[in-house]
Amino acid sequence: MSVVIPATDVREWRTHLDVFARADVCHMPEYHQTYETRTDGAKAVMWCFEEGSHQFCYPFLLTNVVLGGADGAIHQTAYSDISSIYGYSGPLSTTDDKDFLERAWRSFDEWCAGNRVIAEFIRFSVYADNRHLAHADCIVESNREVAVSFLPDSDEDLLQGLGKKTRNMIRKAEQSGLIACELDVREWLPAFRSLYDETMRRNQSPSFFDYNDRYYDLLLSLPQGELQLFGVFQGDRFVSSAMALVHGQGALYHLGASLQEFSSLGAGNLGMYEMSRSLRIQGVKFLNVGGGRTTDADDPLLRFKKSNATGTAPYYIGKRVVNSDGYREVAKIWQDLYKTTARPEKLIFYR
């Protein structure tokens, strides 16, 4: 039996996820709603298949395929595609039984045919480690390394798990009079947004990393404890902050920001350490600190994240053409619009 649950049906969605021991915070319905608002024509849903005591759930964005021509005109098609939200999700299953997974994917393919889905792009969860659950036709690729922390049982072990330079920066921050603490997220969110927006402008970040009121409102709709905010202060001055998303024993470093003049004092390092320390005390075992802005192993943001984590892990993506005829039809329309014979390089080339 299969069912499709919209992300707006928060209770039903979460009830289905409760059976999985390692559901990622990115699997949660509220987080899916944030990216539904950021992708034109997208609907966040979770497809679920149940057979006896076994369950398979797969959340994603179902999005209309719309082509923009070289003339600026918008060209609607009769097709849709599937993509994971920006983050870490993908399918979950209560069993690795091959026959069950084949039946689940067969049922899913029937649903895709009825919804004229032509392509599927998956961002697999590092925490759930679920790439082995992919469809047999899915091409699974290692995309990049991400920084992670397996949080230990003591603050001392956590500190020793960080690099020597990072430990020195944390001590430098403390000797400079900087203090880090957890914040009331509702009270301090406006100040965080100002600090974050200033940091993004300074780093000339792409507009994709600008977040509007609706995005933050949806994050605030997460249950208590699943959205946490940490700040670093010099006296009364708010100089650095880090935001974490938390579910069960897994957490994700989501957003962070610092005033430029305090970066060299280790404000960012102190804030990240306080976040990791607090999560450890709460019982979180795994913290995904995330990757860089690019796939470059020497990406500056990745270097910073690695310096504030205890290790790294591979991050995988999956690509699949679900309907070859439909996909070729869309590609041909796109080639005609742009008067080219070149084949698209990206799987979802039209968005």
User: Number of helical segments?
Assistant: 11
Task: Please state the overall shape, judged from the principal axes of the Cα atoms.
Answer: globular
User: In total, how many beta strands?
Assistant: 13
Main sheet record? 13 strands, mixed
The secondary-structure element order is EHHEEEEHEEHHEHHEEEHHEHEH
CATH fold-level name of the largest domain: Aminopeptidase
The amount of helix comes to 25-40%
Based on the coordinates given, report the CATH architecture of the largest domain: 3-Layer(aba) Sandwich
Name of the CATH homologous superfamily of the largest domain: Gcn5-related N-acetyltransferase (GNAT)
Low-confidence sequence ranges: none
Total domain units: 2
Structural class: alpha+beta
What does the average pLDDT come to? 95
Q: Tell me the Rg in angstroms.
A: 21 Å
Please report which band the strand proportion falls in: under 5%, 5-15%, 15-25%, 25-35%, 35-45% or over 45%.
25-35%
Distance between the termini: 33 Å
Mind telling me the CATH class of the largest domain? Alpha Beta
